[in-house]
Design a protein that fits this description.
The protein has about 90 residues and is mainly α. The protein folds into 2 domains: about 60 residues, no CATH class; about 30 residues. Helix content is about 60%, strand content about 5%. Strands 1-2 form a two-stranded antiparallel sheet. Strand 1 and strand 2 form a beta hairpin. The N and C termini lie far apart (about 45 Å).
């Protein structure tokens, strides 16, 4: 979803993306939207969408240390791959 797109609201309505969430790339945004739908379906129609979204974000925030470690490992792997590439490109053959 781009920053110019709107997200699905209740009863087929369209609403602007939540502040700060407009930078989410499409796949995670779609997965988060599906998770909100799943929570709402399980709880029934009287739960506001923003309550389900907030609960999911809080649940994710509780895992910040694991997420940080995962992202740090990904970054280290990217840097290692780039360093290897640079070394190979600079090796006299």
């Amino acid at each position: 979803m781009s920053s110019n797109e709107t997200r699905r609201g209740g009863a087929g309505q369209r609403r602007p993306p939540a502040h700060g969430l407009h930078r989410l790339v499409a796949v995670p945004a779609d997965q988060l939207d599906a998770a909100v739908d799943q929570v709402l379906a399980a709880l029934g129609g009287d739960t506001p969408r923003h309550v389900a979204l907030s609960a999911l974000l809080l649940a994710g925030a509780e895992h910040a240390p694991e997420v940080t470690q995962h992202l740090a490992h990904e970054k280290a792997a990217q840097l290692h791959a780039r360093l290897t590439e640079l070394q190979q490109n600079n090796d006299p053959q």
